[in-house]
Amino acid sequence: MKEAGSWSCPDYRGLLSIRSRSVPFEAMGAHGCLQAGLLLLALFHFNTVFGDDPLFSRPIAIAISANGSIAYIANQETATMVVVDAGTHETRSVGCSGNGLSDIVCSHQNDLILAVSKSPSQIQEIDAAVSPSIAPRSIPLPGVPEKLAISLDGRFVCITMTWNHAACILTLKEGRLDPTLEIKLLPLTFQPKEVLALEKGLFLIADAFGGQLSLVDANTAQAIAGHEIRGHHIEGLARDESNHTVAITHQRLSSIAHTTRDDIHWGILMQNVVSVISQERLVDPRVGVSKEAEKWMIGEVGNGSADPSGVLAW
Fold first, then answer.
1. Checking DSSP bridges between strand 308-313 and strand 147-150, what pairing results, if any?
2. What is the dihedral of CA 127, 128, 130, 134, to 10 degrees?
3. What is the DSSP letter of 241?
4. Triad 1, 305, 58: Cα angle to 5°
């Protein structure tokens, strides 16, 4: 273990797990620092006030532009998006439709910004460069959205709907939302939350409460592989392009430990874990992934951690 200020960080370059009280990290470039700092800002739910106008109102999600210079931060309590320019240090607010956002993404093909809101249930296309008086283009959704991701080729959007036990696939037309295109609904056997785009129009969808994973092909809107990890409470997915792996943050509850002082103190009852799994194994429905996963424990005796949340890999 290495020490970074008052935080303990595992010796794993390029992996950052954000938790509610501690952050393990290695030396990062400007892009990584921007993401890490802004993620911390969102996860701590700072309500910052600039002048008389509240800029942040329970920030819930962050999207980074293709060149890494601009961050788009979605507010959960107001229908606004905060735009932060890392080069000029300018910060401004952009209006959105609905009563608050639940997730936001930015396409690296054309810097298209997409956001979902729960009230009403919709996906909207936001142009940060246009006048705030111009309403974003929006499409109603067949369920209450939780998270969304854009495919790596910019052709599809996958949206998870936790309480509907489903996900839906939207096809983008020339990289933009098209209300005339069909929304394909994909029922799932678990309650999905986190979603991650992989190669060839594939999406990895994770269980909100258990340890199930589903690999969905957006071209056919069908699940092509299903897996289960030894754990629950999956709160973060990240793809590492350099070694073709996926990092998953989750917890693992022991089936034999007791809620005693010793089992809790020594980390036997509950473990906070980052599991790293190769994409090749995730695509193959015939293999198990849990035993083969490389695992990194978060926290240690005397320096425990809270349940893990988002994760970054670069």
1. unpaired
2. 70
3. T
4. 125
**Measured in whole angstroms, how far is the alpha carbon of residue 88 from the centre of its chain?**
27
**SS3 labels along 136-178:** CEEEECCCCCCEEEECCCCCEEEEEEHHHCEEEEEECECCECC
Tokens of 270: 């509950």
18: nearest Cα among 240, 192, 249, 210 = 249
pTM: 0.82
Lowest model confidence (mean pLDDT) among 44-53, 122-131, 207-216: 44-53
pLDDT digit string, tens, across residues 4-30: 322 333 333 344 544 433 333 333 344
Asked if 192 contacts 208 with a C-beta cutoff of 8 angstroms, the reply is: yes
| Residue 202 structure tokens | 């594939």
Q: To 10 degrees, the CA torsion angle through 103, 16, 33, 43?
A: 40
Q: How confident is the model at residue 310 (pLDDT cuts 50, 70, 90)?
A: confident
| Helices and strands, counts by H and E, the chain | 3, 26
Give the separation between CA 209 and CA 235, rounded to whole angstroms: 9
CA 150 to chain CA centroid, nearest Å: 12
Terminal-to-terminal C-alpha distance of the chain: 20
Classify 58 as helix, strand or coil.
coil
**CB under 8 Å to 180, separation ≥6 — which residues?**
none
Distance separating alpha carbons of residues 173 and 170, to the nearest angstrom: 10
Residue 89 falls in which region: left (phi positive, over 0), alpha (psi -120 to 50) or beta? left
